[in-house]
Amino acid sequence: MSVQTATRHAHYHSPAADQRDPYPTRLSRPLDMPWLKRREAVVKGAAEDGPLSQDQLDTFERQGFLFEPDFLTGAELDAMRNELKVLMARQEYAGRDFSITEPDGSEIRSLFAVHFLSERFRQLAQDSRLMGRAEQILGGEAYVHQSRINYKPGFQGKGFNWHSDFETWHAEDGMPAMHALSASIVLTDNHHFNGPLMLIPGSHKVFVPCLGETPDDHHKQSLKVQELGVPSREALSKLIAQHGIEAPTGAAGGLLLFDCNTLHGSNANMSPDPRSNVFFVYNRRDNRCTSPYAAKRPRPSFLAHQPDETWSP
Q: What local confidence, expressed as pLDDT, does residue 223 receive?
């Protein structure tokens, strides 16, 4: 075991034995109800705490997400798009554990830990415009729990099954509570035909337990095709009947903020146009991960960073 890995594992401790998990998942049989009520507030800060207006905070509270077109424009957007091309062209990343390929091909599907791979993306992740929004919603100091590029090549990019990020982060990374969110910046135009992100508004206010024991090294399969940690069709049907489905689309440069527990997924890319987004996941510092709640060991650090942790490929 490397020094880095040993140090990382030393950060983990098991939840208190007498503390019952409020969000049980990866169960052997379903609970009597399709979902559990969320315990944490969605928006913990106020309008005076950051750049988002009260109307924007209310939208995030109600829907579990907020889309802001034209967050990046001009030369700044061009620089980020160019950085995407540079990272995707790095041959030394091919075959590495942090570089995930499509299920049936060699095209890159996701590239993780991009704020460590790229100084430009590191600066963007720490930018007060993003960090300020995250800390305003989360109501406290935040750090980057995960970063990645999702790249759907034209005609070849497969979809992502419906899921709650928090379900995975809780089960496999040991994230205790719902004090996290994702900031996704679209680096290529997202339209209805290249597999835009779809979300179920309002789904963030309940937690849907999932079935199936987490196997060892589950991430090696789930990052290509997720089959565990997926809500039942019954729960999805009921939530969609209540709330519908929305798919924010728009030109490159838009920002989508969404709660850690908002159910989301996407279709395959049926167009010749790639669909590329960069994601930064912000977790509140007092919500740092402990030991996994439904897995034998934590996932690798390129998937779940601890506060102030360093990582290198």
A: 58
